Amino acid sequence: MSSEVRVPTLGESVAEATIGEWLKKPGEAVAADEPIASLETDKVAVEVPAPTAGVMGEYRVAVGDTVEVGAVIATIEEAGAGAGSARPGNEAGVSAPREPQPAPMPASAPAPAPAGGDGDAQTLSPAVRRAVLEHGVDPSSIRGTGKDGRLTKEDVLAAAQAKKDTPAPSQSAAAPAPAPALASGPEGRARREERVKMTRLRQTIARRLKGAQEEAALLTTFNDCDMSAVIEAREAYKDLFAKKHGIKLGFMSFFAKAACLALKDVPSVNAKIEGDTIVYHDYIDISVAVSAPNGLVVPVVRDVDAMSFAQVEQAIADYGKKAKEGALTMQDMAGGTFTISNGGVFGSLMSTPIINPPQSAVLGLHRIEERPVAVKGQVVIKPMMYLALSYDHRIIDGREAVTALKIMKEAIEDPMRLLIDL
Predict the structure, then answer these.
(1) Tens digits of per-residue pLDDT, 46-55?
(2) Residue 266 and residue 298 share a domain
(3) Residue 46's beta-bridge partner residues?
(4) Residue 333 or 351, more confident
(5) What three-state secondary structure class fits 76?
(6) What range does the domain containing 296 cover?
(7) pLDDT of 66 strictly over 50
(8) Given this model, what pLDDT does residue 47 score?
(9) Do 258 and 395 sit in the same domain of this protein?
(10) How many CB atoms are closer than 10 A to CB 193?
C-alpha cells in the first residue's frame, strides 16, 4: 500500500512551484516528516516532508517541472513492501524521470559525476550544485562533512582551493577533448556559451524589479555621511557588546535605528499606495536585503523601532544564516514597510537602488572610503560613505525624501541622537 506525497500549502498568493531537487531516491527508507524534495517558489525554497514512514516510491514529476498546490509528486511505499526492489530501472516498475542535464561547461571544468561507492547519484543542494558548476570540481572526489555525509558548500570551496594549489599536469598527460567552439575570437581563441534556465526566484526578482520601474515614478537622492563617530563607538564598545549580548556590533543596527527616526518624522517614506489610497503605517518593519545562493532576498525585521541594537543585530544575523542555508520561509519575507540594501559589502561606491514594491522607498548603503573633506576651513581625511534613498515620487515629494535622508545622515554622524530620539 502506498501513500501519496502532495505539494503543501506554499503561502499566501503562491499557487505553484518548481521541483528543485529530490532529497530521497526510490527505494530509500524514509521517516515520517523527513524532507524528500525541495520546491522552488517565487520567493523561497520549500521542503516537502514525507506524510508517513516507509520507502520512497516513484517520482510522479521530474526536476524542473512546475507543480500546483495539492498536486501528487511522489509516493511512499510501506516498509517491507517491495523495499528492496523499488530502485530505478528494476522489475517492480518504479521509475524516476531523468533529471535535466546541466548545460555544457568548458572542457577544463568536469561535469558533476555520480558519487558514492554504490554508484548512486549524490543529492546536491542548490547552493552546492552551483558551487560545483562554478568551480568545476568533481563532487564524487570530495568527502562530505554535512549531515549523513552530504556535501556542503564549504566542502566544495575547499576542494576548489586544493585544486588550484595542485601543480598542473605535464604536457604529456592526456588532455580532455575540447568542447565545441562557437566561434574563433582574437588570436584564434575558442569562445563558448553556457545556457542555464532561470530559477523561479530569479524570474520573480526580474519581474518585480522591472514592474517597479514601469509603475513607480522612481527618483534617487544622494548624500554623503561621515562614519567617524559610528566607527569610534563601535571600536570602543564592540567587545563589551559581544560579551553581554553574544552578537557582534555592526553598522546595520545604527542605520536601522537611524531609519526609524527618519520614518517617524517623515511618515510618507514608510507608507505605500493601494489603488488611489495612501496607507500609512504606525509600525516600522524593515526589509534587509540578504544575498542567498539563488539571488537577493529581503527578510523582514519587524517592529525595529521597538528593538534594541542587540535585537536588531541578532535578527539580521539569524536571517543571513537562514538565507545561506536556504531555510527562509514565506513568513520571514512577508510584509515590510521600508528596505535597507548594503551594496558596500560587495565594494559598491554608489548606486541607485530600486524600491521593493509595494514599499515606497529604499536606503542604499555603500562602501566606507577615506576621502579629503573640508572641516571648519581645514582639509582632513574622513571615512565617508555615500547614502542613496530611492523613492516613489507619486507618494513622496523631493523635500520629504531629502529631509528623511538628512535625518539618517545626522543620526549616523552624531549617534547621540539615537539615544535621545532627536
Answers:
(1) 788 888 888 8
(2) yes
(3) 39
(4) 351
(5) strand
(6) 218-420
(7) yes
(8) 80
(9) yes
(10) 8
